Amino acid sequence: MKNTFNPIKFINIALLAVAPCLAHAASNYPDKPISIVVPYAAGGSTDLIGRALGESMGRYLKQTIVIENKPGAAGSMGAQEMVRTRPDGYKLTLAPHGIFRQPYLQKTRYDPIKDLTYIASFSTYDFALVVDAKSPLKTVKEFVDYAKQHPDEISVGTPGRFTGNQMVMVELGNATGAKLTHVPYKGDAEAITALLGGHIKAAITTNSILPYMEAGTVRVLGVASKERLKAFEGVPTFTEAGYPVVIPSPLGLAGPKGLPAEIVEKLDAAVQAAVKDPVFLKAIGAYGIQTYYMDHKQYAEFAVKTFAEEKDIVGKMNEDNK
Prior knowledge:
single chain, alpha/beta, D-Maltodextrin-Binding Protein, domain 2, six-stranded mixed β-sheet, 11 strands, 41% helix
């Protein structure tokens, strides 16, 4: 009798053989060190937060977590890495908000919805409008009124084009009718240096401005958060000042597509434990960072919604950059 090869039957048999192995691996997970890609340089605030998260999760999972720094590509190197990562839970990445925006700015090797499994978010950055301490502008209203009276005279520094920082500036301009001139830099540090050197009138930074605020060299006029922030004591939100500008920037943990549900749930539980861990809270508190937890289901829904919204956001910022 002629023996014919049936590819469908072969695939089904192969899957049946592999399935028990995958189930066994998931049930024993983790049984070796896990690596987390931090898509920024070592020593920065995101790197330090990522290391604190890794230490806390490692204690919960009873396994070593190693940090791999892969800066570049506007914080999307980790997302790109996931495209070629085996979905076994042993290589993950921090997922900054910018990964949802990057595909609208240039061709990327990843699709933020199809190529990633969202595990949980754990913190959020805050955005603050700051001026030099010697500036006569003492409130957001004074800043807006001056900008309206002196069109295009207010230069605002940010860590670069299409960042959340620039989005705050764009939304503030849209909400008030004020014309603000965007001056992009390579990071918060350069923007702050330019502000203190008198090269720009204002800057929109993240929590990295806190040491300067505490030293009294800058004045923080407002923050783009829903509520007042403990780290920015006494500083009103833009909403309190009369301008509905709220720009959250969650930072989360993601893995490659196809990550088994049992592994996702274990990792999610570890992140949830981390955001309650006093050691982790102390570490992020040193940078004025607040926790922002979403479980894997909420985070996946957030990813879909945010990726869809980013198209219009990029359009607004493109108009501002003309």
